[in-house]
From TrEMBL:
It is found in: Cell outer membrane. This is Peptidoglycan-associated lipoprotein. GO terms for biological process: cell division. SUPFAM superfamilies: OmpA-like. The lineage of its organism: Bacteria, Pseudomonadati, Pseudomonadota, Gammaproteobacteria, Thiotrichales. It comes from Sulfurivirga caldicuralii. Its main location: membrane. InterPro entries: Bact_OuterMem_StrucFunc, OMP_bac, OmpA-like, OMPA-like_CS, OmpA-like_sf, Pal, Pal_lipo_C. Part of the Tol-Pal system, which plays a role in outer membrane invagination during cell division and is important for maintaining outer membrane integrity. The gene is pal. The keyword Glycoprotein does not apply. The Tol-Pal system is composed of five core proteins: the inner membrane proteins TolA, TolQ and TolR, the periplasmic protein TolB and the outer membrane protein Pal. They form a network linking the inner and outer membranes and the peptidoglycan layer. Keywords: Cell cycle, Cell division, Cell outer membrane, Lipoprotein, Membrane, Palmitate, Signal. It is a lipid-anchor.
Amino acid sequence: MKRMTKLWPALLLAGTLAGCGGQQTKPETAPVEPVSEAEKAQGERNGLPIQSGDQASGVEVIPIQSDSGEAVGAGLSPDEMQAGAEQTDQDMQPDAPVIYFGFDSDQVDEQGRETIKYYAEKLLDEPNVRVRLEGHTDERGSPEYNLALGERRAKAVAQILELYGVTPDRIEIVSYGETKPAVDGNDEAAWAKNRRVEMVFIR
C-alpha cells in the first residue's frame, strides 16, 4: 500500500503529460532586440544593411549598387545626393554657343544668325541674364590687327542681338584676338575653329 502511494504522483504526472501531447501549441515569435548604436556602426563598416528593432519586418534592405559594386549614395544625406545630381546635370550642359567667321571677315552667315536669334529669345525670357561676347581670331595677322578684328566680330553679333530686342546694357564685348585659340594647329581646319565669337551668359 505504501508502494502504491509513492507511485501515484508519478502516474498522475505521466498522465498529465500524455494528455498535453495531443495539443498543438503555436510557437511564440522571438522578440526583436533593439540594435545598439555600436552594432549599427559596426554593421555599416562591414557594408551590411543593419536595421533597428522597429525596422525589422522581414523585408531586407539592400543598398542600390552601381556597376562597380559600390553603394550609390552610401553615407550621403538627401541634400548631398541632390547636390550631386545637380552637379551631374551641370556637367552635361553644352559649352558656350559659338559663332564662326570667314577669313579676315566680321560678317555673320545664315547659320550664325539663326544661332544668335535662338539665344536672343532665351535672353528675353531671362531678364536677369547678361551675355559677354568674346571675339577671337586665328593666328595670322599682327596682334593689334587681330584684337581689332575680334572686337568687330563681337560687335557684329551684338548688333544682331539688339535687332531681336536684347538691350545694349545686357551685352558686354571683349576681344582676345589670337591669344586664346580653341584649337592648336597651323592649317585651315584649326584656323576655321579659331575665327569665332563665344557667347558667355552671366547671371
